[in-house]
Amino acid sequence: MSIKAKNFLEKLNKGPLSLGQLINSIRLGEECSQVNFADILGISKSHLCDIEKGRKTVSPQKAAEYATILGYSPEQFIRLAIQDDLAKAGLRYKVDIRAS
Predict the structure, then answer these.
(1) What number of other Cβ atoms are within 10 A of residue 97's Cβ?
(2) What is the DSSP string of 7-64?
């Protein structure tokens, strides 16, 4: 995802982008129902809903898997998954991921 797209989504969401918000934006952009999108990701509709609403976080491993399934670069998904965990723990750090 480009910096321009990230900034646009953060402006729409009125704050830092979470992995759930990114997944929700992708799903809506694809005009896909939660049921169909959950099937694509191999999870239940309720689990997808919990991710999109920020009630559940996603491990970096699962984030990379979801990125691959959806045809996106894993780095952004992994970064957001780690950022979500830090935010949930109340730790104010910014994550930067680079492939080695």
Answers:
(1) 16
(2) HHHHHHHTSPPPHHHHHHHHHHHTT--HHHHHHHHTS-HHHHHHHHTTSS---HHHHH
CATH of span 3-88: 1.10.260.40
Q: Any idea of the CA torsion for 22, 98, 73, 65, to the nearest 10 degrees?
A: -80
Question: Residues 95, 74, 12, 89: is their CA dihedral positive or negative?
Answer: negative
Q: What ranges do the domains of the chain cover?
A: 3-88
Tokens of 66: 């979801």
Q: What is the pTM of this model?
A: 0.85
pLDDT tens for each residue of 32-84: 999 999 999 999 999 999 999 999 999 999 999 999 999 998 999 999 999 99
